[in-house]
């Protein structure tokens, strides 16, 4: 009997992938070949009416991000920024009240994004990561563990951000630049489904892809730890 290996899709190098084509194949670790039970469990979950509507809208939005889709051979011609994608998706879902959880380090960008959403007819609740003004000592951090050593610093407070968005009854939330980990806590504690506009990368202008693109060049240190 074939040994079932842990999925390693990121290392899949077959020419035609089974998950993309009925004529395709998958390597030994291919979860499309080995994870039938998980697939069926997941497909059952999509059958929930709200989940189905959301998933359908997301796939429709995905397609609508390209033009000239009926041409053969198809050539990708994407036309929509992520800001536009979020706006269109929220309209598709008939969302009225949006929550924006933003990082204090991106105050100006958060302000711009909220004003754009309002121009497009949404009511927006925005909550800064420092909300509550709780000193970092609450987390047991000492003076030498702060960004500015020896000063008074308030902690990023993603669970409170989530609680406030929950209390406001937002239909959908959008994150703007939260730190690694803080984003995960907000995602876990928010009641409404939550997407991400911006991921924080303090060095690369919030474009972490640049490190991956440059891994054979100026970022080779990443592969040589
Ligand atoms: S699901 Fe299978 S075919 Fe698709 S990327 Fe993963 S390993 Fe490759």
Task: Walk me through what this model shows.
The structure is a single chain. The protein has eight helices and four strands; from the N terminus they run H-H-H-H-E-H-E-H-E-H-E-H. It is of the alpha/beta class. The longest helix is centred in the N-terminal third of the chain and has 16 residues. 16% of the residues are buried. The model has no long low-confidence stretch (mean pLDDT 97). Helix 7 links the parallel strand 3 and strand 4. Strands 2-1-3-4 form a four-stranded parallel sheet, with helices on both faces. Helices cover 35% and strands 11% of the residues. The structure holds iron/sulfur cluster (SF4).
Which terms summarize this structure?
225 residues; alpha/beta; Rossmann fold; four-stranded parallel β-sheet; 4 strands; 35% helix
- Report the end-to-end length measured between terminal Cα atoms: 38 Å
Give the second-level CATH assignment, the architecture of the largest domain: 3-Layer(aba) Sandwich
Average pLDDT: 97
The unique ligands bound to this protein are: iron/sulfur cluster
Q: So what's the CATH class of the largest domain?
A: Alpha Beta
CA radius of gyration is 21 Å
